[in-house]
Amino acid sequence: MNIVVCVKYVPDAQGDRSFEDDNTTDREGVDGLLSELDEYAVEQALRANEGGEGEITVLTIGPDAAADALKKALQMGADKAVHVVDEAIAGSDAPATSLVLAEAIKKIGAVDVVMTGVASTDGVMGVVPAMLAERLGLPQVTQLSQLSFADGKVTGRRDGDVASETVEASLPAVVGVTDQTDEARYPSFKGIMAAKKKPVETWSLADLGVDAGQVGLANAWTTVENVTKRPPREQGTVVTDEGDGGAKLAEFLSAQKFV
Amino acid sequence: MAEVLVLVDHTDGTVKKTTAELLTIARQIGTPAAVFVGSNVDAARPRLAQFGAEKVYVIDNADIDGYLVAPLAEALAAVVEQASPAAVLLPSNGTTKEAAARLAIKTGSGLITDATAVQVEGDQVSASQTVFAGSYTTTCKVTKGFPIITVKPNVLPPKASQAGAAVVNVDVAVSDAAKGAKVTDRQPKQKSGRPELTEAAIVVSGGRGTNGDFSPVEEFADTLGAAVGASRAAVDAGWYPHSNQVGQTGKQVSPQLYVAAGISGAIQHRAGMQTSKTIVAINKDEEAPIFELVDFGVVGDLFAVLPQATEAVKKAKN
Question: Using the beta-carbon criterion (under 8 Å), do A133 and B100 form an inter-chain contact?
């Protein structure tokens, strides 16, 4: 199977994330990395292709530093990488991101599976996989906590709020996985060495035939008007249990009128 | 005034509270019109009327239930074409966010997800979200098409306002392309009898410190009428169902009271709960980061503290 895994380079959630003056994410002030939730997509792609003849291409859109996210996926075992870099893309929203990804996937060509994570760990909207499926006209089998491929089909389990569903689709399809699929592997020493020789292509918007007027902050379909930092919570009372911790907790709840 | 479409969240005609909240918001923007997908609209109509739905667009088509997301998006697009709405409001859950995403692409309209507030100034609609693990609030406006906004539960108290709720049937022929992803089996979630996690006013969660025994957490939750949550560590260990996970990759909750028992408070967990109004924690480790957030904390063993608190709360109630 030929699989394209869409991944994102995001600011490290352990760092102190913030915004630029134009209300876009500050990418300078904090280290970036491959979004943790995308590692699950890379892992499932590697498993789906084990022993197969297909190729796994990892695809990202982002500034030069986003190559680090591709590198990690190549070290895990992906075969090649495509990096879409163009200054005009900065500040793109989900519809523009899905447009650029869709055009890049078409250019890669002969794709059986477009694999994604459930959401990025910075924007956390979780809408790009559905937008991609809509734009590519492919079946969408997303938010899967378990999945398997057989006979040109993908079958998986999707856990919703009210029901757990079994879903299936013929390939090609957009397949999205959650962090309930198995843990992603760590790159081995061999994988790290091998990754250095794997091809990384860099494409611009012009390479994809996408007009700069369709992407970027100025052409986003939504605009951030206002960003406010939440005031830090002031720590309240912390008591040590000396046999009366539960009673003190109940007193607090009564005083706050929760009881 | 232009119509504002509200996708009705219901189970076989039983309408959820979030729908009343969305209709209340819709009234500030324009003329509320409910979009009811499924059967048994007769059961739903009185409640939709009570919260101001002038119209109820009904799409009763088995293909929508039998396939994943794409047919629902087509149904919404069909109503949009008929109504030319000022805005479309949907509840925020996995499926509705994806349907909203497809609708955004189909109609060339901007999308805001997981809104925690919707403001209306003149004909301008904006929506707020919390981002970066609850550390920032952003306010966004849609600049292309009409606003499509998915809204979280409990953003405002619903206000009743009687309206006619006239039924308008909409025929939707689901395209073959939208039937690409089929639902072959559906197992309803087991009902716990407790409130739903994302809608509950009080949430009591357990973590690694429970060592797999959630009984003190559940008993304390039940005395408070609370929902039960779990940390990722507890879920990954198989101690509690994934559907109850609170955190960045689970449910985001924002109740009046959040009680964290045996949870250290990793950033991923904090991302799911730190907008709660009042936060209480019980943990053996006084260095646990969760204590940085608390209004009240107890350094101690949850197996001693929770049962004692449960008894004290029961006594106070009687």
Answer: no
